[in-house]
Amino acid sequence: MKPLTRRQAIALGATGAAATAAGAAGLLWSARIGSPGGPDDDVPGARDAWTASPSVSSSDGVLEVRLEAAAARRSIGGRDADVRAYNGTVPGPTLRLRPGDRLRVRLANGLDDPTNLHTHGLHASPAGNGDNPFLEVPPGATFDYEIDLPPDHPSGTFWYHPHHHGMVADQLWAGLYGAIVVEDTDPVPATRERVLLVSDLTLDTAGHLHTVTMPERMMGRMGATVLVGGRTFPRLDAAPGDRELWRLVNACPTRFLRLDLEGATARLIARDGHRLASPRDAGDLVLAPGNPADLLVSVGDGTATLRSLAYDRGDMGAMMGRGAGRGGTMDAEPTEPLDLLRIVPSAGTDAADVPAPANPTPANPAPRDLRDRPVAARRDVVFAMMGRGMGPGGMSPTINGRSYDADRTDITVEAGTVEEWRIVNTSPLHHPFHLHVWPMQVVHDGTAVVDAPDWRDVVVVPANGEATVLVAFDGIAGRTVFHCHILDHEDLGMMGVIEVR
Ligand code: C2O
Ligand code: CU
Ligand code: CU
């Protein structure tokens, strides 16, 4: 086996494009983002008001909630669609916790396939009925999870989604995801808070989920319809002068979001559930699949639009995008900005002043910096698309030359130590690297040394590049996984097992 060559990547791209073009021949329906609004709407393109998913909060240190994963019929972009949902809503309920709380979830599987539950980004035990990705809840069964947050758990935005190997991407894009908020003991002052989960999916004309082909999975599926809070291009009602705390999550299986907010100002205050040492301008913020970010947005007296700009995630993507063409089922490499949402201030005007940015106080206490700690071990973790021949049939996404095996432990770490991991990517596509349970401090992002403490649970490893992180295997021990957060890659085997003991 050897890493995928550029020629193979091109061959794969062509296959993917052909499959996509065939699928697009009248069979697929794509709700174009930014389509004109209805006649009774004076704001073009922002038709539906955004509404929050139901939220449930802990009391007396416990949050008890039942989540039923099942088929649901939802209106998406003005049409009926067959999706999957937790408790019938997309996104599922927002779970609100405090550091030190216990989360008890009774997961009921009303799907036709096995599933399970993962609390993405939480620093919680992966053992037993905790945040255990090896569990399987069969169709018709229920399972009681018990997830304990340590008292010093960071406050911020996290999320949950299924993690049954082989079906993660399918179940996520079908609508199974929701937010987890760990409340801030020292909240950022804001007029209101919004949980904004961004997802994508592709539906056919009958409103059924598109069946994803192998070439699409090799590339990572890109949904033709992008949703914010389960809606296409929602409208956010606000008043001039409002300050909004946005808890964003990129819940797309593959799509990178490169965010641009026009008409309002935004400060980035947290990434991946970790407050920044000092808030900064949120311009040109890239969220890889899986990444959350918290923004403090100042509303002006005119409309403002949040877009995702074109983003190049590598060669295979470029090939696929060129062949498939815009408006196909899979906009593999979007070259035009996508409208995500629009803020419409009450009594707003079109020509308006952009407000001065809010300046929230920096994180207190200051973020940890692992560069002071001795490094007990250094490792290389190599992401590759291994090809045995031409075409997608002979290819598999691997880590350190192997594909996932739940029974094999790939990395064993001594509890309490700090390790430095160099994550290398020998393939022509970016891979977002995700480690469960233990957050990573990025010290080199592939282009430059990162000076300020930068904590992530998903780190972009650029095409034919690398990134270096420090990880403190503190507090919690156990056996869990690390993987590519292009969830098709994870389902195809780009995942490994780590045991900390
Ligand atoms: Cu959000 Cu193991 O994943
Ligand atoms: Cu995770
Ligand atoms: Cu990948």
Give your account of this protein's structure.
This protein is mainly beta and 501 residues long. The chain has 5 helices and 34 strands. The protein has helices at residues 6-24, 168-173, 214-219, 315-324, 487-491, and strands at residues 2-3, 28-29, 55-57, 62-76, 79-86, 94-97, 102-110, 118-120, 142-148, 156-161, 178-182, 192-201, 203-204, 225-228, 235-238, 243-250, 257-262, 265-271, 274-281, 285-287, 292-298, 304-308, 338-345, 375-387, 395-399, 411-413, 418-425, 431-435, 440-444, 455-456, 458-461, 466-472, 478-484, 495-500. Strands 1, 24, 25, 27, 29, 30 and 32 form a 7-stranded mixed beta sheet that branches. A 6-stranded mixed beta sheet has the order 14-12-16-21-18-19, with no helix packed on it. It has a 5-stranded mixed beta sheet with strand order 3-6-11-10-8. Residues 1-43 and 317-331 have low confidence and may be disordered. The chain binds CU-O-CU linkage and copper (II) ion (CU) (2 copies). One copper (II) ion (CU) binds at residues 397, 431, 484, 486, 489, 494.
Structural class: mainly beta
Number of helices: 5
Spatial extent as radius of gyration: 22 Å
Number of DSSP strands?
34
The coarse overall form would be: globular
Ligands, ions, cofactors: CU-O-CU linkage, copper (II) ion
Strand content: 35-45%
User: What's the overall average pLDDT, rounded?
Assistant: 87
Q: Residue ranges: pLDDT <50 for 5 or more in a row?
A: 1-43, 317-331
Q: What's the layout of helices and strands?
A:
Layout: E1 2-3, H1 6-24, E2 28-29, E3 55-57, E4 62-76, E5 79-86, E6 94-97, E7 102-110, E8 118-120, E9 142-148, E10 156-161, H2 168-173, E11 178-182, E12 192-201, E13 203-204, H3 214-219, E14 225-228, E15 235-238, E16 243-250, E17 257-262, E18 265-271, E19 274-281, E20 285-287, E21 292-298, E22 304-308, H4 315-324, E23 338-345, E24 375-387, E25 395-399, E26 411-413, E27 418-425, E28 431-435, E29 440-444, E30 455-456, E31 458-461, E32 466-472, E33 478-484, H5 487-491, E34 495-500
Parallel strand pairs: 3-6, 4-7, 6-11, 12-16, 15-23, 24-27, 26-34
Antiparallel strand pairs: 1-24, 2-13, 4-5, 7-9, 8-10, 10-11, 12-14, 16-21, 17-20, 17-22, 18-19, 18-21, 22-23, 24-25, 27-32, 28-31, 28-33, 29-30, 29-32, 33-34
Helix pairs in contact: 1-4
Bound molecules: CU-O-CU linkage and copper (II) ion (2 copies).
